[in-house]
Every structure is written in structure tokens, then in C-alpha cells.
């Protein structure tokens, strides 16, 4: 059986969605394939997010990921939007949810750390729900 494909979607695909992709690859790769993308991508990943993820998890997003547009994604089974009162595009999927995360861009390291830990918890919960057949 193929693992479900999960897309983490945010407007710029530079911070929260990239963090979610990284943490999903670290903590849920046995359960699902993780992707991230946006509708208006940035040229580079938010370097504060890169630094925080590297410091906390020893994962270098600069070498393993890049900003992408949603049309670069494969067909997704699950869509996770990041939140922050932004209209994310509708994409076909079997399941969709919004994580309602505030964007830490331009804020303190503590806010990035808080966001990273929230995303880690949500990624692990998503994997648990997938494994227990509570979604898709």
C-alpha cells in the first residue's frame, strides 16, 4: 500500500509550511510522504526558520528543501493549511484541515521555537490519526 501524500500549504512556502515539511520528514516519513508549497513562493526559505529548525532538530532545510508553487505538487491525499487568516487555495484531496498557526516571521526566536514545537506536535498527531484510520 502506498503511503498517503500530505501537502502543507501556505501562501509563500517560506516558513511554517517548510517547517512542517521538514518535521514531517523527520517524524512521520514511515506514515506519509510530506510536501510543501505556496501560491506566491519566495526565492528562499525564511532563514530564521532554517536556523531554528537546524538548531533544534539538526535538520538543514536549505540543503534538503526549496520553496515551491502548488502546481509543482503531486496529487495529494491530505491538505494541511497553516492558518493565519489567509485564504489558501482549494486543491482536491480526501481530507483537508487548517492548523491555525500564527506566522512567526519577523518575530523573536522564542516565537519560532514555539511554532516549531506546535508543528512537531501536530505532525505527530496527524501521523497517529492516519495510522489509526481516523482520516482517509
Give me the number of helical elements. 4
Content of β-strand: 5-15%
Order of helices and strands: EHEHHEEH
Care to count the β-strands? 4
What's the end-to-end separation, in Å? 13 Å
Give a quick account of the main beta sheet: strands, pairing sense, barrel closure. 4 strands, parallel
Shape summary: globular
Low-confidence stretches at least 5 residues in length (pLDDT < 50)?
A: none
Structural class: alpha/beta
What is the averaged pLDDT score? 92
Approximate helicity band = 25-40%
What spatial order of strands do you see in the largest sheet?
2-1-3-4
Rg is 14 Å
Can you give a write-up of this model?
- With 136 residues, the protein is an alpha/beta fold.
- It has helices at 16-27, 47-57, 61-64, 109-131; strands spanning 5-9, 33-37, 78-81, 95-98.
- It has a 4-stranded parallel beta sheet with strand order 2-1-3-4, covered by helices on one side.
- Helix 1 (16-27) links the parallel strand 1 (5-9) and strand 2 (33-37).
- Helix 1 (16-27) packs parallel to helix 2 (47-57).
- The longest helix has 23 residues, at 109-131.
- The protein is globular.
- The two termini are 13 Å apart.
- The mean pLDDT is 92.
Q: What topology does this entry show?
A:
Blueprint: E1 5-9, H1 16-27, E2 33-37, H2 47-57, H3 61-64, E3 78-81, E4 95-98, H4 109-131
Parallel strand pairs: 1-2, 1-3, 3-4
Helix pairs in contact: 1-2, 1-4, 2-4
Amino acid at each position: 500500500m502506498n503511503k498517503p501524500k500530505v501537502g502543507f500549504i501556505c501562501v509563500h512556502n517560506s516558513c511554517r509550511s517548510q517547517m512542517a515539511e521538514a518535521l514531517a520528514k523527520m517524524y512521520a516519513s514511515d506514515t506519509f510522504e510530506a510536501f510543501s508549497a505556496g501560491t506566491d513562493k519566495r526565492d528562499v526559505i525564511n532563514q530564521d526558520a532554517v536556523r531554528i529548525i537546524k538548531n533544534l532538530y539538526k535538520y538543514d532545510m536549505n540543503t534538503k528543501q526549496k520553496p515551491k508553487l502548488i502546481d509543482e505538487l503531486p496529487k495529494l491525499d491530505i491538505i494541511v493549511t497553516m492558518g493565519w487568516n489567509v485564504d489558501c487555495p482549494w486543491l482536491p484531496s480526501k481530507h483537508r484541515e487548517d492548523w491555525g498557526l500564527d506566522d512567526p516571521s519577523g518575530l523573536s526566536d522564542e516565537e519560532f521555537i514555539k511554532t516549531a514545537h506546535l508543528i512537531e506536535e501536530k505532525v505527530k498527531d496527524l501521523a497517529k490519526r492516519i495510522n489509526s484510520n481516523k482520516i482517509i
